[in-house]
Design goal:
Mean pLDDT: 95
Largest sheet: 7 strands, parallel
Helix content: 40-55%
Number of strands: 13
Low-confidence stretches: none
Distance between the termini: 37 Å
Shape: globular
Order of helices and strands: EHEHEHEHHEHEEHEEEHEEHEHH
Radius of gyration: 19 Å
Strand content: 15-25%
């Protein structure tokens, strides 16, 4: 089928597009190729996709209302995987308007395109950050997420609410996917693993926040993609058990679902760094710092709902995932 992937030059977008192409789908990719991080890395990801005749790329910003409308009218995708967004918790503190433009204006443009062109299913990226200051772990989709502690998180929660409104009003099947700390080859340079590897190999100290007292549900990219593909293949449906007198935030009497995609194996940050040190063969110089604004000490995903829906639980151990990242990192930057 023809599937629109927004953010196709992004980390998750490239890997997802590759999987779709490998199984025979036609992929229409869009990305604005902004300079939030290294545009050359985005271009290199795109080159991996352009070799397939079933891949079509449009340089387009999802916040461009007319451009997105014209794209839907021209391409008429059967399904949409919406991964384009302004990412990053800390960047949202200093550049809030970028999140309103990309994550709110961009998302309504995608919803309208889906509504007016009979899209069968919209799967979209949410984030573990919506759980905010929650301390009940593991985080489950049924938990309250009304207390975001960053604007980024607030925009992702808003996306879930906007999607539900369209599912209710127009019976558009929508599924939100709360990703947990994604890592792996071709990853984002602003993420911890990338920053740590770069600093360690340059003989520079790494910044470790909250004095190392952090736990993350690090999730390998292949597991994220497997979850996305399985979900897009199973359009959301109304939950026959949904009770409006005791509503479950993750389901509805509309065709709407929310799922975590996390490794369900939270790892202390210091153990993650140790795995990176082993893979690199170098011991890091460590600079311990206080917690950053908008950050949380713990993320941990319950994936029972995802498993019940599509029969999949992420399970890549960090030792394997980190080793694959390091192998890619050395090869990619050796060629530079």
């Amino acid at each position: 089928m023809k599937i629109l992937v927004t953010g196709a030059a992004g980390f998750i977008g490239m890997h997802t597009s590759q999987r779709l192409l490998a199984r025979g789908d036609e992929v229409v990719g869009i990305d604005n190729l902004n300079d939030y991080y290294d545009v050359c890395l985005k271009q290199a990801r795109l080159e991996r996709l352009r070799g397939d005749a079933r891949f079509t790329f449009h340089k387009l910003d999802v916040a461009d209302r007319c451009g997105v409308a014209e794209l839907f009218a021209k391409e008429r995708p059967a399904r949409v995987i919406h991964l384009a967004a302004q990412a990053g918790v800390r960047y949202s503190i200093t550049n809030p308007h970028a999140y309103i433009d990309a994550n709110l204006q961009g998302f309504i443009n995608i919803l309208e395109g889906c509504r007016h062109h009979g899209v069968e299913h919209l799967a979209f990226a949410s984030s573990s950050s919506v759980y905010g200051g929650n301390t009940a772990a593991p985080f489950a989709e049924r938990h309250n997420v009304d207390h975001p502690i960053s604007l980024y998180a607030a925009t992702k929660k808003a996306n879930e609410l906007m999607a539900h409104a369209y599912s209710h009003l127009f019976r558009l099947p929508t599924t939100g996917l709360r990703f947990f700390t994604v890592y792996g080859p071709w990853g984002r340079p602003d993420m911890a693993l990338f920053l740590f590897a770069k600093a360690i190999l340059a003989g520079k100290p790494i910044d470790i926040f909250n004095h190392g007292q952090m736990v993350r549900d690090f999730t390998y990219i292949d597991d994220i993609v497997e979850g996305v593909i399985r979900v897009i293949d199973k359009p959301a449906t109304p939950d026959p058990q949904y009770d409006p007198a005791a509503p479950d935030p993750a389901t509805s009497n509309a065709p709407y679902r929310i799922f975590n995609i996390g490794n369900n194996q939270p790892v202390p940050l210091m153990d993650f760094i140790a795995a990176l040190e082993r893979a690199l063969g170098v011991t890091a110089q460590k600079n311990f710092l206080p917690m950053q604004p908008g950050d949380v000490p713990l993320t941990a995903a319950s994936t029972d709902a995802l498993d019940a829906w599509v029969g999949f639980k992420p399970n890549t151990p960090i030792t394997a995932g980190v080793a694959k990242f390091v192998a890619w990192y050395r090869e990619y930057y050796a060629a530079k």
